[in-house]
Write the structure tokens for this entry.
Amino acid sequence: MADLLPQELRVLVAVAERGGFSAAGVELGLTQSAVSHSVRGSEGKVGAVLFERGRAGAKPTAAGERVVGHARRVLRLLEVMVAEARVPGAVAGVVRIAAFRSAALYLLPPVLERLRARYPELEVRVRIVRELGRGTAGEVVDGRAELGIATLGGSTPLPGGLVSGVLAEEPYALVHPVGHAEPRALPLIDWDENCGSYTRSWWKAQDWIPAATVQAEDDGAVLALVAGGHGMAIMPELSLTGAPGGVEVADLGEGRPVRQVGYVTTPELAGTAAVRAVVRELRAGRKA
């Protein structure tokens, strides 16, 4: 099988992200026919149909999704190869981080501040991704991020081929309006990203926890609703960093659930200077 060329990889990524051959051509400065010819050639080399064509444009097939993810990662490695060849060991260029909301708000800011001070030629881009389904780890697999801040240690395994490390273990706590005499009798407020596989068995064993009366968009909305006296919530420690006035945090006692927060990346990116620098600062930040 002939290898795909970098330009062919760029075409595949552009078609997937733009949703069609014409839009990809505009982005790359190519004609629609040149894009179509390139995609057909790539499909011939791979031996699979990579896009479903239709009046609405082009959508990656299941095989196409996998190939486009690999294409993004290969193109990123080519960029890193050139950067590190020019200045060996230099911490420079761009690192994209996918993080869930509370990690982006409370875990990353001091890390980014130290990175800016120590590595002025490094640009860190952070994107908030809901930790549902494939979550932040999926962003790394798909080549949209070099590093993901993810929840680890649950019964759902990470996608294959990733490396990871634990940064912190955070306990869950009961959050309720200040001064309430019977917080466990209040209605439950929850959000979709909560109650992962690491808490479900504990959750099911608690006969005092009702079904959620209010389902909020994220943990910030949950805290606002609790502060407003609308109910109680069960939340991880990191989500409570920015807790507003009007809420009280109570220990759930022995056997309380604990979740792990860590990083994920690919084996090939784990050894690059920029990703190593970010991981070092993440670890240093949790020890501080």
About this structure: The chain has three domains: 6-74, 87-168+261-287, 170-259. Residues 54 and 122 are 41 Å apart (CA to CA).
